[in-house]
Amino acid sequence: MDVSIKAPAKINLTLDVLHKRDDGYHELEMVMTTIDLADRIDLTEKAAGGIQLESSSGFVPFDDRNLAYRAAQLIKGRFNINKGVHIKIDKKIPVAAGLAGGSSDAAATLKGLNQLWQLGLNLEELAELGVELGSDVPFCVLGGTAIAQGRGERLTPLPPPPPCWVILAKPPHGVSTAEVFGAFRQEKVEKRPQLEQMEAALAAGDFHGICQGLSNVLESVTLDQYPKVRLMKEKMQRFGAPGVLMSGSGPTVFSLVEQENAARRVVNSLRGFCRQVYAVRILGGLGEPNRLE
Ligand SMILES: C[C@@](CO)(OP(=O)(O)O)[C@H](O)COP(=O)(O)OP(=O)(O)OC[C@H]1O[C@@H](n2ccc(N)nc2=O)[C@H](O)[C@@H]1O
Ligand SMILES: Nc1ncnc2c1ncn2[C@@H]1O[C@H](COP(=O)(O)OP(=O)(O)O)[C@@H](O)[C@H]1O
């Protein structure tokens, strides 16, 4: 039997770092939402017990450093599964971009193997397993729009933003999440997210309120270390995008735009300046996903 499953990227609408914890991780408070930029995971059962992995991207590891591979290892070990699996990752989400591509592949693998091997786990149980693989995996298991607290594992679902375009610009380099957290200093933060304001804007479907509430304290690290990322953000703002923010630890910068012609203007403004530009829709039960051609 085969299982194919979509692994969508996320963006952060807000990201606040509250403090550093005794376990070395940072206590976070963020709002995340899934977008229609997705990898595809194909799982094929193998009689022999091993895990094999292939990917369309040369940028991801093919061994147990790959989060999808580690998800399969975790499931096999925890539930004493003797069968093996071939994992094929059709990679569309840029790697080390702040878009949780690896975490989403891991979440999709957990969900797919739950189906393939009929384990009967619910989403909460899969999310609990997911946090052993990475802080963003529980959110990727649940998807939609949610507040994520703790390391990212305490999730509270929220209504999705109203339909809009998400324009993403990804510079050629990636960033290391661990290095960004390592360089983070509270005293350098100029603007902090207002969680209640973002919750109220989402509840009211208030697109402009959502744009005004976009805020990510990790910009204080990544925009300083990578001036090109700052430039990209300024360029998007200059070309009329109402809300512009860096996602996660970066370096991807996104803007939210309501109208298609305005979205095209922002995409065109980035031509010749940034090679990896995507225009996609927000996901979250709002009808069929759509793309700008
Ligand atoms: C910053 C965020 C926001 O969504 O996303 P990305 O930029 O990676 O997409 C996430 O919290 C990232 O989650 P994820 O990429 O799963 O991180 P992990 O593998 O768990 O951790 C990588 C490293 O980041 C640091 N880390 C991560 C999460 C956290 N709450 N505190 C931390 O200090 C730790 O040094 C850890 O070793
Ligand atoms: N399936 C995967 N897809 C992408 N990256 C992966 C995967 N498995 C492991 N990685 C590693 O995880 C790191 C973070 O990648 P990714 O999840 O794409 O970014 P981010 O954490 O910034 O959202 C990269 O160094 C990459 O080598």
Task: Quote the beta fraction.
Answer: 25-35%
What is the N-to-C succession of helices and strands? Answer: EEEHEHHHEEEHHHEHHEEHE
CATH class of the largest domain: Alpha Beta
Largest sheet: 7 strands, mixed
- What is the radius of gyration computed over CA atoms, rounded to a whole number of angstroms? 19 Å
Are any ligands bound, and if so which? 4-diphosphocytidyl-2-C-methyl-D-erythritol 2-phosphate, adenosine-5'-diphosphate
Architecture per CATH nomenclature, i.e. the level-2 architecture of the largest domain: 2-Layer Sandwich
SS class: alpha+beta
Describe the structure.
There is one protein chain. With 293 residues, this protein is α+β, with helices and mostly antiparallel strands. The protein has two domains: 2-158, Ribosomal Protein S5, domain 2, CATH 3.30.230.10; 165-281, GHMP kinase, C-terminal domain (Alpha-Beta Plaits), CATH 3.30.70. It contains ten helices and eleven strands. Strands 1, 2, 3, 4, 5, 6 and 8 form a seven-stranded mixed sheet that branches. It has a four-stranded antiparallel sheet with strand order 9-10-7-11. Strand 3 (51-55), helix 1 and strand 4 form a beta-alpha-beta unit. The longest helix is centred in the middle third of the chain and has 16 residues, at 101-116. 46% of the residues are buried. Adenosine-5'-diphosphate (ADP) binds at residues 60-61, 65-68, 89, 95-103, 105, 177, 248-249.
